[in-house]
Specification:
Layout: E1 2-8, H1 28-43, E2 50-54, H2 57-69, E3 76-79, H3 87-95, E4 103-108, H4 112-120, E5 133-138, E6 151-157, H5 168-171
Parallel strand pairs: 1-4, 2-3, 2-4
Antiparallel strand pairs: 1-5, 5-6
Helix pairs in contact: 1-2
């Protein structure tokens, strides 16, 4: 069984003059959202074997902060391909991953993440919100066996789900 957690980067600063989309950093609210999602993942015992992230600043910051929240010290790769490259490029990266890896996080951007999720699953997700996480499971032994429509949706979470109610287990893990 292989699992991929598709994670959209945290909320980035608004566009400002002289700063490209690639250079925008995570907002204060974005870091709170990472705390919420990181606490949920830790509470569920969800930890990656490897993290692939876009090179854009907001994705890098999201990756590093989430890894810190999960006490993850394993490999983190920051790839140009995860910043608006064709989905086929990302699929090739996934399919070439070593089979000793069972769980991967892919941290990137819409519309790519949406396209990937919708191609791997029979579910249709119209938009992954910032810091949204879609967990797909694949009944395969090797990443090279990855095929369209073979992923099963395990869950789809995002920070606004916790806006009015944060379970005590998550609340006690948050550092605010």
């Amino acid at each position: 069984m292989k699992k991929i957690y598709f994670i959209r980067h945290a909320k980035a600063e608004n566009f400002s003059q002289g700063v490209s989309d690639y250079e925008r950093s995570v907002k204060k609210k974005g870091f709170k959202d990472i705390d919420t999602i990181g606490s949920y993942l830790a509470l569920q015992g969800i930890y990656p074997d490897v993290i692939f992230s876009s090179c854009a600043l907001c994705a890098q910051e999201s990756t590093l902060y989430l890894a810190e929240r999960l006490s993850f010290t394993g490999p983190k790769y920051f790839l140009e391909e995860l910043y608006y490259a064709p989905c086929e490029d990302i699929i090739n990266i996934i399919m070439s991953e070593d089979d000793s890896v069972d769980v991967m996080f892919i941290i990137g951007h819409n519309p790519q993440l949406n396209e990937l999720v919708n191609s791997f699953s029979q579910e249709h997700i119209s938009k992954i919100p910032t810091m949204g996480v879609i967990a797909l499971e694949f009944d395969i032994d090797s990443w090279s066996e990855l095929e369209e429509n073979r992923g099963n949706l395990n869950f789809f979470i995002y920070p606004k789900q916790f806006k009015y109610y944060i379970p005590n287990q998550i609340r006690t893990k948050l550092v605010i």
